[in-house]
Amino acid sequence: MTDYLFVIVSLLVVMVTLAEADVVSEILSNSSRKDLAMENTPLVRLTRDLLARDRYDVRVRPIFNHSKSLKVHISISLYQIIEVDEPSQNIKLNVWMIQKWRDEFLSWNPQEYGMINSTIIPFQYLWIPDTYLYNSVKMSRDETERYMNVKIESQYWKGRNGSMMSFLYPAIYTVTCRLNIRYFPYDRQNCTLTISSWTNSKSALDYYSDPEVNLASFIPNEEWDVKSFKIYRHEYKYACCPEPWAILQASLVIQRKPLYYVVNLIIPTSIITVVSITGFFTPASTDDDRTEKINLGITTLLAMSILMLMVSDQMPTTSEFIPLIAWFYLVIIIVVSIGTFLTSVVLSVQCRRQYGQIPPLYIRYYFFVVIPSFVYLSVPEALATLWTELDDDPLNTWRRIRKPSYPPKTACLSKENPNKLPLLERQSVGASLQPGFARSNSIQMIDVSSPSSPAISQRSGAQSTVHSPTHGLWESAVSALTGTNMLLRRTSAAVTREVDELRRKRQCSLEWEFLATVLDRLLLAIFISIVILITAGLVMVGKMAQLSYDNSDESFL
To answer: Where are the transmembrane segments (predicted)?
Structure first.
């Protein structure tokens, strides 16, 4: 039984071994057939034949006659303006590059390779020109260009040797660009991309290009408009080499869209300035002074300084000229500073009322008569009443001085204007002018000290003829009346002087206050006009600069 089992196991092992051998042989045969089939594939044969070591070397310039130059054609497509860095003075572009040249070492007959006329091979297996962007900020090629494959097209059907090589790759270039910000934010910039070989002169590599950069796939930028992007070919000689170098210069002309800066910088600055200037229109505070206006001016200066710092951070540092926007902020700061200073002057004018002297006549005439009509101001009613009562109207006073024939100032009794007399005299005059006023009710004032007085003469004559026993009483009464009359006159004069003094003080206070108000309104009109002219001038200069750019585009090439 044991021998029988041993024989069965041995047979099974032999059968498994034979099966494995058949499988392995089948796999090997299939692999050899696949390898043979791949080797017979036209594309594989073409690639291997083109890149055979005994036929092609990536280190050698692919031209049979090395005394001739290899022509390289470059085409550029602008895809996007990523960033324009004004402080660093560079521009970042996303472009698509195409380099084309003829490789004389790569030739084949398409009929021998299944009618394959073109193929694609990774760039590292082929010779490519050492094209370099001279004014690139980043030196590493891996950070700027993304090399992939090269398309090879046979020239057999054109009766030529070799193949046409098309090397397409995307690139993100950061290019140095000297920015001219004289008319910022209405500026136009011209940035140039300088392209050529780094080691080969024109005798080895001769560069050509399309006249303009392709903008069909360009994504519009929110801040910049592309005016033109043209490529020019130049030949320069350097001190290192006797042969000239073929240089391609791609000139990118871009113009800034000023709306962002107008809305976010210029208009807010003008509004803040107008708010500061309207401090001249702000009335006095509850304690009748204007100190808050000075605080408003200083606060505005601080706001201007902050805005100017924001602008300066966005512009390159330059000492060759002052940008247009810097002129704007500088002039606005000067205007606000002068306005704050003049506010202090107005405050000083208002405080002169404490000295009790009215303004000079020429100031009263021009600032109380002439100027108020131009700044839409009228004389306060209280001040006009005082001028009428005191007969001190600036216009009449000015006319009396300028024209001697003008009716002079008078303080005599006047039925037409009794208000010009002192208070007690106006009362008596008013009583005497009333119709039906009884003369017997009025007090007849006599001068007892004068012997020529009619009343005294009559009574003296009567007393001389008739010796009345009341003679002593009469003299006592006359003496008492005389003293009372003198006391009333002195009291009336004192009251009149006091009332006039109070009126003069009130007139002085109101005139200086009104003078400060007229100055405020006049300065308000002047400074608002200046701010409007400055803002309009900035816009006009910027627009004129843009028009000059449009009329002389060739100056930017």
So the answer is: 259-282, 294-312, 324-349, 361-379, 522-541
Q: Is the pLDDT of residue 11 over 80?
A: no
Burial of 408 (0-12, 13-18, 19+ CB in 10 A): exposed
Nearest-angstrom CA–CA distance, 27 and 44: 23
CB distance 87 to 317 below 8 Å: yes
Answer yes or no: do 243 and 283 share one domain.
no
Structure tokens at 253: 């002309």
Contact by Cβ (8 Å): 534, 332: yes
Residues 74 and 177 in one domain: yes
226 and 136 share a domain?
yes
Q: Based on the domain organization, do 243 and 298 belong to the same domain? A: no
Q: Return all residues near 173 (Cβ < 8 A) that are at least 6 apart.
A: 92, 93, 95, 133, 136, 144, 193
User: Could you tell me if residue 345 is inside a domain?
Assistant: yes
Whether 304 maps to a domain, the answer reads: yes
Q: Which of 257, 283, 301 lies at the terminal end of a domain, its last residue? A: 257
Distance from C-alpha of 112 to C-alpha of 94, rounded to nearest angstrom: 41
C-alpha span between 243 and 201 (Å, rounded): 6
Q: What is the pTM of this model?
A: 0.64
Is 424 domain-assigned? Answer: yes
CA distance 16 to 31: 23
186 vs 547: CA distance, rounded Å? 10
Quote the pLDDT of residue 120: 93
Backbone angles phi, psi at 539, to 5 degrees: -65, -40
Which domain range does residue 114 map to? 56-257
